[in-house]
Amino acid sequence: MIPAVMPTYGRWDVAAERGEGCYLYATDGRKFLDFTSGIAVTSLGHCHPRLIEAVTAQGRRLWHVSNLFQIPGQQRLAERLVANSFADTVFFNNSGAEAVELSIKVARKYQSHVGHPERYRVIGCQGSFHGRSFATLAAAGAEAYLKGFGPVMDGFDHVAFNNLNEMRAAITDHTAAILVEPVQGEGGVRSPSDDYLKGLRAICDEFGLLLVFDEVQSGMGRTGRLFAHQWSEVTPDVMAVAKALGNGFPIGACLATEAAAAGMVAGSHGSTFGGNPMAVAAGNAVLDVMLEPGFFERVERVSRLLRGKLEALVGAYPKLFAETRGSGLLLGIRCHVTAGDFVAKLRAEGLLCLTAGDNVLRILPPLIVGEREIEEASGILDKVAREWPQS
Q1: Long-range contact pairs involving 310-313 (C-beta distance under 8 Å, separation at least 24)
Q2: Which of 88, 159, 221, 301 has the greatest number of beta carbons closer than 10 A?
Q3: What is the pLDDT of residues 14-45, one digit of tens each?
Q4: What share of the chain is helix, strand, coil (3-state, %, to 5)?
Q5: What's the rounded mean pLDDT across residues 344-353?
Q6: Residues of the chain with CATH 3.40.640.10
């Protein structure tokens, strides 16, 4: 008999009851150091007091009105995102998949608006992940996620990640945009070479394409800057963000330049819940914390400490681990042993981590993580590695 909750997840044996900072507590009394952050969502940790205050205060005033009304908190959040990014305008929705899907719509609408409706195809990268809707699944092209859901939506081509030659060769008269993650998360925590994003910008400028970044996982401070692409000093035309924007309250956003969004007029897109008063209260509270002086400098400092610990672990156990990957606090270790088995052992010792493609152990602590928690996590990682058979 099928359970009441549709069985689409392979759930852990942890029933979460409450959280505080970097720690998660189960209903059976177990305490875990949470280095999953709800899959890069609770970047300010569990139950951050600023978030609690903001959402509680908003909940006492107004929950929802729809976008038929002006929403002051939405206007404020949009203005702050514009002020701290490349963008001129923002559309709010509820999730990363929705933000990416709108990014694709914006790219197609732009080409139609400038007189090239034949340009509708989007080039994505192998190993990417953009969400679970039909369009975002097709944009990523991963067979594991597409199986059984055919036919695959048309309009997407795929090339190797971090390969500018393949990207250039894939462009046709029907290409509208290039869609990439500045750091691949689900696909194996892979960072591109230093010149990759600059090369993509140059290609888009040459061929009249839009450059679309999916920063759903890598954005909102995860790499030590508000957005990962800022390290390369490259500006996209469109960008999708979500996850940590609400620190767990569902909110996503599509950011765009004025030129890219020129075709997005009244009636061209909409959302019932997107950017409602509760969601933007959470988003504004997140920015209140992240835009404080010294926040990102601290993230950089602790990320260097954690990466150093992970690199030492890889060096100490070459039979278990191959290499360290990632950027900032979006980190991974490619394993020789089965990453999922290693994650299970870590969980049994009180440390929650994730897996990613290419047999990678994915490590996503909250951005508020401190030296004490990093030392604790490093001790658990070392213990599990030391006790691993034939290590």
Answers
A1: 310/363, 310/381, 313/378, 313/381, 313/382, 313/385
A2: 221
A3: 999 999 999 999 999 999 999 999 999 999 99
A4: 40, 20, 45
A5: 98
A6: 49-290
CB 161 within 8 A of CB 187: yes
Q: Which of 221, 366, 381 is closest to 309 using CA atoms?
A: 381
Q: Which of 52, 41, 20, 44 is nearest to 368 (CA)?
A: 44
Q: Are 192 and 163 in contact (CB under 8 A)?
A: no
What H or E segment, with its residue span, contains residue 238?
strand 238-241
Strands 252-256 and 89-93: antiparallel
* Superfamily in which the 16-34+294-386 domain is placed by CATH: Aspartate Aminotransferase, domain 1 (3.90.1150.10)
- The DSSP element (H or E) to which 235 belongs, if any, is none
For 200-214, b/e burial (b = at least 16 CB within 10 A) is bbebbeeeebbbbbb
Q: For tokens 């994505």, name the residue.
A: 124
For the chain, give every residue range classified as CATH 3.90.1150.10: 16-34+294-386
Report d(CA 90, CA 260) in Å as an integer: 12
Q: Determine contact, residues 98/252, Cβ cutoff 8 Å.
A: yes
The structure tokens listed for 272 are: 């019932």
Residues 68 and 28: their CA atoms lie apart, in Å, by 45
Question: Given the DSSP bridges, would you call strands 330-335 and 360-363 parallel, antiparallel or unpaired?
Answer: antiparallel
Collapse the DSSP code of 284 into the 3-class scheme (helix H, G, I; strand E, B; otherwise coil) and give the result: helix
Average pLDDT over residues 51-71: 97
Helix (H/G/I), strand (E/B), else coil: 23: strand
